């Protein structure tokens, strides 16, 4: 049997195992081993998911969450790379500023939420600020590290080619730091999703976080599970998309191994 | 052999203006004197080799010539102008090719970097890149990343990038030090051919005495702590040189012995 | 000036500048307070023990969740690391559950368990399982094959093989996973408290905000930061103490 066929066979078996877990879940729900108020069967959750999509409810909630997540993440990426590049490419900044950042890093970022609410109220701006603030750390710290770790020889090559400062940043430093930066961006996208959900729960902003909370309050467990499943899919799709982007952008790294 | 003729002419007149001139150069780094009062002229088209025990400052001298270091006192001139910063007419081939190539660019992309820096329009680059890769014996490898190439190929690629600068001077820092003997001999001959074709001036740093004599018009041996000139030998071996017959000539063996004795003395 | 002293220049300068600015403008704000007032509020919260009780609640939930999550993650990770068949069969299931943001489970935990420690512990545990599972699986897989051959040659029974060979060999890397998860545990605990659960530091900081006590709110923020930092430092030190040499010898082997 070819290697590819073996891999596919394992995949199929693995899917079968997952399917049997779902069947078990269905069985537990059918036998009412757990109250249906808390645990809907996969059939009911699926039906709710489909209903939500067909009447457009879930689409708009999903769009809301994606919007919060993506905007916050983009702001964090642009700001994080820019600030990280400035700090990482200067020895002076690294000695004076980087330690403060390392000190702030273990701060649970959600603790900034009350401060953001006090400043901006329960608004979209608050959510954007919180998400961007939370998502900026992995990107910024990775960028600092990436810029600080550029091979000095490459800077000498750039000097002997008399490249401009801008050319050095875009042709040498950024590509060299790109594996670190992308790894930071992958971590951040997860942070951004979590903070989007939290902000929606707290501020009642339109999105899946708000939807699952409302469903829980009304004990609509099928809707609740549908929302959680959709959040899981969102997390999965974004992480797969990030891996694919990394794979494409960093094809040269595969050659190095 | 126009180049050789030009070179002889310069030798005969004896005082054509040097392309690179060190005048009383001293360099201190971190409180230590690395190079002391070094004076040296390199004629246009000359192939100068610098040898010496490790730590004698030969690489440092090369970096001074490149403008990567500024002397603490004294002057380094290029074509009569003081070298205050690196310039594109001077290309450097680093020993650690693995670090000096951009791992995220293909062979073609690495060569292109020098063309981009020189301001060549994008439309003209592909043809020039192909020509350069062919010159260094890498046709058909344009799409490969450095990590997919052998050490010898990577060093050829670095040389191609340096040639793309169309340098008047080529500075080579133990370029073949990390390569095996066969690859090394092949590349020695190729460098000689490339230099003969382009007429570039070369300063070539090596710790391999045979290599220095085989390649050079002149060999300088440095004394360590601090670095200064200890011996200077004219190499009057005919060109083009040949790996077998050149190395068998009595003149080659005589120079080799002289240089060997010098190095041995410095190490005691 | 040493590098450590240089590192302190910026934070001190920011604090002083902020203090000066707040005094000069007679700052009246629901969101900002001068550092001196924050310090006083923090001292006050210590004096009436409120912040200590909140710290106890948060750390209790975080550590309980961390312990449960670590146990589950470790058991699964080691099993998956040893039995490749099991690992391959479970792959789709794991990859389907793992990307669910832990905080999305909050409403489920809420209706099933109500407010309080239990729901928070469950969510923290869920968040901690994954890094531990994945890193301990990798750690077990990277154990020197020679060691496993030794275990087989000695005819160690499976339980002893796990206890005497696999866990000690993988421990340095498992501890790194534990350190990561401890950070996650604190973050998730505080987040759950801020979002909905009326206990602990997260609830404390939300209450201070709702009472428009900017000084107290920022005092909580500073204290949460200190706890996060201390936890991180403590675990880094523990890692060096426990595994400094072992980790090094493991690298060179």
The CATH topology annotation of chain C reads as MetI-like fold
Total domains of chain A: 2
Going by helix content, strand content and strand pairing, the class of chain C is: mainly alpha
Low-confidence sequence ranges of chain A: none
CATH class of the largest domain in chain A: Mainly Alpha
Outline of this structure?
The complex is a heterotrimer of chains A (257), B (268) and C (253). Chain A is built from twelve helices and no strands.
Question: What this model shows, in words?
Answer:
The complex is a heterotrimer of chains A (257), B (268) and C (253). By secondary structure, chain A is an all-alpha fold. Chain A has two domains: 1-33; 40-256, MetI-like (MetI-like fold), CATH 1.10.3720.10. In chain A, 83% of the residues lie in helices and 0% in strands. Chain A has twelve helices and no strands. Chain A has helices at 3-30, 42-54, 57-88, 91-96, 98-104, 112-120, 124-148, 152-160, 165-203, 208-217, 221-249, 251-256. Chain A is flat, with a radius of gyration of 23 Å. The model of chain A has no long low-confidence stretch (mean pLDDT 91). Chain B is 40% helix and 23% strand. A six-stranded mixed β-sheet of chain B has the order 6-7-8-3-9-10, sandwiched between helices. In chain B, strands 2-1-4-5 form a four-stranded antiparallel β-sheet, covered by helices on one side. In chain B, strand 4 (73-78) and strand 5 (81-82) form a beta hairpin. Chain B folds into two domains: 2-89 and 167-267, 3-Layer(aba) Sandwich (Rossmann fold), CATH 3.40.50.300; 101-166, no CATH class. Chain B is globular, with a radius of gyration of 18 Å. Chain C contains ten helices and no strands. In chain C, helix 3 packs across helix 9 and helix 8 runs antiparallel to helix 10 (214-252). Chain C is an all-alpha fold and 253 residues long. Chain C has a single domain, classed as MetI-like (MetI-like fold). At the A-C interface, helix 1, helix 5, helix 6, helix 9 and helix 10 of A face helix 1, helix 4, helix 5, helix 8 and helix 9 of C.
Task: Write a concise keyword list for the protein shown above.
heterotrimer; A: 257 residues; mainly alpha; MetI-like fold; 2 domains; 12 helices; 0% strand; C: 253 residues
């Amino acid at each position: 049997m070819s290697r590819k066929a073996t891999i596919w066979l394992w995949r199929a078996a693995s899917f079968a195992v997952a399917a049997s877990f779902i069947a078990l879940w269905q069985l537990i729900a059918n036998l009412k081993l757990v109250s249906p108020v808390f645990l809907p069967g996969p059939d009911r959750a699926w039906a709710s998911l489909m209903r939500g999509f067909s009447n457009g409810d879930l689409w708009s909630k999903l769009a809301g969450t994606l919007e919060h997540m993506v905007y916050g993440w983009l702001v964090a990426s642009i700001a994080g790379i820019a600030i990280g590049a400035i700090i990482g490419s200067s020895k002076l900044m690294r000695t004076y500023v980087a330690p403060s950042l390392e000190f702030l890093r273990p701060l649970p970022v959600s603790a900034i939420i009350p401060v953001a609410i006090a400043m901006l109220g329960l608004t979209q701006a608050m959510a954007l600020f919180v998400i961007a603030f939370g998502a900026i750390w992995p990107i910024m710290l990775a960028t600092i590290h990436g810029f600080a770790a550029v091979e000095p020889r490459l800077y000498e090559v750039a000097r002997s080619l008399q490249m401009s400062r801008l050319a050095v940043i875009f042709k040498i430093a950024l590509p060299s730091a790109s594996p670190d930066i992308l790894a930071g961006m992958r971590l951040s996208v997860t942070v951004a999703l979590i903070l989007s959900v939290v902000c929606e729960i707290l501020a009642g902003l339109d999105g899946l976080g708000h939807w699952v909370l409302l469903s829980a309050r009304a004990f609509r467990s099928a809707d609740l599970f549908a929302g959680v499943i959709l959040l899981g899919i969102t997390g999965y799709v974004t992480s797969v998309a990030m891996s694919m982007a990394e794979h494409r952008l960093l094809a040269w790294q595969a050659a190095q191994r | 052999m126009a180049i050789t003729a030009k070179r002889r002419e310069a030798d005969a007149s004896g005082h054509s203006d040097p392309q690179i001139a060190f005048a009383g150069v001293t360099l201190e780094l971190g409180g230590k004197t690395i190079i002391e009062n070094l004076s040296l002229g390199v004629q246009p088209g000359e192939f100068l080799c610098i040898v010496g025990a490790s730590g004698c400052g030969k690489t440092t001298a090369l970096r001074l010539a490149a403008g990567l270091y500024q002397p603490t006192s004294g002057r380094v001139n290029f074509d009569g102008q003081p070298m205050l910063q690196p310039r594109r007419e001077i290309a450097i081939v680093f020993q650690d090719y693995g670090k000096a190539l951009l791992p995220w660019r293909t062979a073609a992309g690495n060569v292109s970097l020098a063309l981009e820096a020189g301001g060549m329009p994008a439309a003209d680059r592909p043809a020039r890149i192909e020509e350069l890769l062919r010159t260094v014996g890498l046709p058909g490898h344009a799409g490969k990343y450095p990590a997919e190439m052998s050490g010898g190929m990577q060093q050829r690629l670095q040389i191609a990038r340096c040639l793309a600068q169309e340098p008047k001077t080529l500075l080579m820092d133990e370029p073949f030090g990390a390569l095996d003997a066969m690859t090394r001999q092949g590349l020695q001959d190729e460098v000689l051919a490339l230099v003969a074709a382009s007429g570039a001036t070369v300063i070539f740093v090596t710790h391999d005495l045979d290599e220095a004599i085989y390649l050079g018009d002149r060999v300088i041996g440095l004394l360590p702590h601090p670095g200064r000139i200890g011996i200077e030998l004219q190499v009057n071996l005919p060109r083009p040189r040949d790996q077998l017959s050149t190395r068998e000539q009595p003149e080659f063996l005589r120079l080799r012995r002289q240089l060997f004795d010098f190095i041995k003395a410095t190490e005691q | 000036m040493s590098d450590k002293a240089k590192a302190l220049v910026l934070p001190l300068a920011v604090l002083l500048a902020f203090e000066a600015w707040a005094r000069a403008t007679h700052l009246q704000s629901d969101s900002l307070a001068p550092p001196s007032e924050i310090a006083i509020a923090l001292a006050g919260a210590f004096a009436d023990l409120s912040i200590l009780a909140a710290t106890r609640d948060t750390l209790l939930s975080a550590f309980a969740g961390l312990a449960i999550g670590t146990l589950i993650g470790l058991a699964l990770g080691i099993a998956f690391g040893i039995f490749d068949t099991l690992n391959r069969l479970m792959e789709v299931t794991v990859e389907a559950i793992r990307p669910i943001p832990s905080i999305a489970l909050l409403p489920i935990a809420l209706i099933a368990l109500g407010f309080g420690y239990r729901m928070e512990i469950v969510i923290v545990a869920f968040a901690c399982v994954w890094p531990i599972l994945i890193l301990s699986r990798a750690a077990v897989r990277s154990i020197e094959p020679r060691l496993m051959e030794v275990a087989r040659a000695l005819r160690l029974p499976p339980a002893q093989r796990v206890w005497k060979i696999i866990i000690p060999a993988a421990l340095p890397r498992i501890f790194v996973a534990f350190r990561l998860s401890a950070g996650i545990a604190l973050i998730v605990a505080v987040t759950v408290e801020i979002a909905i659960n009326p206990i602990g530091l997260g609830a404390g900081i939300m209450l201070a905000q709702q009472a428009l006590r900017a000084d107290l709110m920022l005092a909580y923020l500073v204290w949460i930061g200190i706890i996060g930092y201390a936890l991180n430092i403590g675990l880094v030190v523990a890692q060096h103490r426990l595994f400094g040499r072992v980790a090094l010898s493991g690298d060179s082997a």
